[in-house]
Automatic annotation (TrEMBL):
The chain crosses the membrane at residues 269-291, 355-375, 395-416, 446-466, 473-495, 507-526, 561-579, 599-617, 629-647, 659-680, 692-711, 731-750. It comes from Alca torda. This is N-acetylneuraminate (7)9-O-acetyltransferase. One of its GO terms (cellular component) is Golgi membrane. Residues 253-734 form the Cas1p 10 TM acyl transferase domain. It is found in: Golgi apparatus membrane. One of its GO terms (biological process) is carbohydrate metabolic process. It is an enzyme of class 2 (transferase). Residues 22-90 form the NXPE C-terminal domain. The lineage of its organism: Eukaryota, Metazoa, Chordata, Craniata, Vertebrata. One of its GO terms (molecular function) is N-acetylneuraminate 9-O-acetyltransferase activity. The gene is Casd1.
Amino acid sequence: FKGGDTCEYLLSSGRFLGEKVWQPHSCMMHKYKNSEAKNCLVDKHIVFIGDSRIRQLFYSFIKLINPQVKEEGNKHENIPFEDKSASIKVDFLWYPEVNGSMRQRIKSWTEGSVAKPHIIVVGAATWSIKIHNGSNEALTQYKINITSIAPLLEKLAKSSDVYWVLQDPVYEDLLSDSRKMITNEKIDAYNEAAVRILNSSSRNSKAKVKVFSVSKLIAQETIMKSADGLHLPESSRDTNAMILMNGYCNKIMKPIDGSCCQPEPPLTLIQKLAFCFFTLSAIGYLIINLIHRNNFRKNKSCTDLESGEEKKPAISTPNVSTLEMLLQSFCKLGLIMTYFYLCDRANLFMKENKFYTHSSFFIPIVYILVLGVFYTENTKETKVLNREQTDEWKGWMQLVILIYHISGASTFLPVYMHIRVLVAAYLFQTGYGHFSYFWIKGDFGVYRVCQVLFRLNFLVVVLCIVMDRPYQFYYFVPLVTVWFMIIYGTLAIWPQIVQKKANGNCLWHFGLLLKLICLLMCIYFLSYSQGAFEKIFSFWPLSKCFELNGNVYEWWFRWKLDRYVVFHGMLFAFIYLALQKRQMISEGKGDPLFSNRVSNVLLFISIVSFLTYSIWASSCKNKTECNELHPSVSVVQILAFILIRNIPGYVRSVYSSFFAWFGKISLELFICQYHIWLAADTKGILVLIPGYPMFNVLVSTFIFVCVAHEISQITNDLAQIVVPKDNSTLLKRLLCIAGFFCGLLLFSAMQDQSRH
């Protein structure tokens, strides 16, 4: 379904999410702050012309610029407003009827060199109905008057934004006796006349008077809350003012979560080059495929009539098959990236704002938990945090995080705090997994490092190019990448202490603990020294990776939020492997981890700790204060979960294959959601099928999961080709990759220069 003209949808259609949140059809509405409104309207002149309803809209609009404004003064006269700090002028002109006086005022802006307002908002009708007692003659005169004004408004529309506000319905039961003649039937007749006459002489022109009809829809839902049956409640007026602000400012400010009235961003040089690369890959793959098919036909097995044996076709050379796999992978990736671009950069599909309700978060959680328990199988091994168990852990956490994102649950603090623990648990696994590998294997070779870095970063680098986003935008990948390098650096620097060496002499264990203490001290120093942290990551070219909106503050905040949990993961791995080596734990199938008494005590403590943390997180009142405590206390719930999951032997011996399947593609799911499940860089929701929210989620989720799975396969295939085991070949590949990134930095600098 094509997104269409989002400006037209913004002004004409939508629905309420809950009681107060307005959702325009097909696009997202940004909630403007005072500072943003001022930046947009600097040196602008805005005029509101009309009756008391327009005056209400005027006040709601100027409160977006200055919330301290009070509605005072004579209501039936002109009201000026000026913000000198931003040179903004907003005037209300009292013209309660569409008549000669209003025409004269509008005409004055079309003549000579008179400064024209940048935005003109006009609307009136209820006074005409009231004064003339709802007579048909008044409606006829209204049509004549609006016919004379329409060409002037259309002329102004060529240089200004002109809005004609249709009349809102009334709540007839609440109207006073003096207003009883103002009926919804009369209002509809006046609105019909205005819509028919306006733009009648400029049907094919781009410059048109914008008919502001969305106010009618809003009023239909809220007019019964009106104080007098005629004027809208304050929340509805504020919504109308915000719609006006979005209609004018989105194309200027370009907010991420304001897709209404925002033009499609132009293709950058890097995006064009990426498009050419993927196109050439597809052409190359098709050519090779055709050549292979042609060769296959020529060498097709045929029976030798004399010997009765089959002649086998020639076997393809390995180099050709590798090239074919490379081109095939890039061809598939190109198609997938096209879908990414169409979903979140082209104005092809609709986008909607998130709206949180408890049911939208908790019902899907219960549903996936039931599914996960249903698909239970026996594990191949019964060690603590075995591969199947960690995949399961990643899987259910990722599904919960996905539901958290699409439901907009970040606005509910208890849920936010629990999700922070899930993100910390991912990083805990990073510390645990990489430490365990280096400690047991002692493999500090370049091949291992390159394999990990490639698998972590390949998709994000491609998305940075295709979607024109900085590396730090996909914050989780930079986070795990930097922590992997910190783990590697800590263990690889002299002296390299591994399990094999430590088994020969217990002093090496103290040496490793000393290394870990030094790491903890560095983490502590950087977390409380923002200046030092920012200096490290502000050096070029690191700054190109970690800057967001011109500074590295976001990166410092993200790193600081879970600063200790990777260290906790490394320390847990060290203690667990030491206990395992000394056979102090029992990991047999069905056996408790420790003796029955110790297991029961630890299990009780773990359950109490788990629940205590949840109670504390649920009672959080201030996000900033809770975020300060989170790095130190998140490990409590993580360790409690690990012990609950592993102490009982029967629990450790089973896993959910459903969750484990998602766990294997958890990184791809986390990154892909930004653009093809959510929308507007996670701020909204992608709408492939409008009007059917549940069906839309099912369809977009199916495509999203399939794409994530396919990208995981592509990454694995390319990792084998791009990062070979042979050191000399690997060195050549690394030089090529370095050249690629140098070119990327050069083109990026050219782009930045052209933008400025």
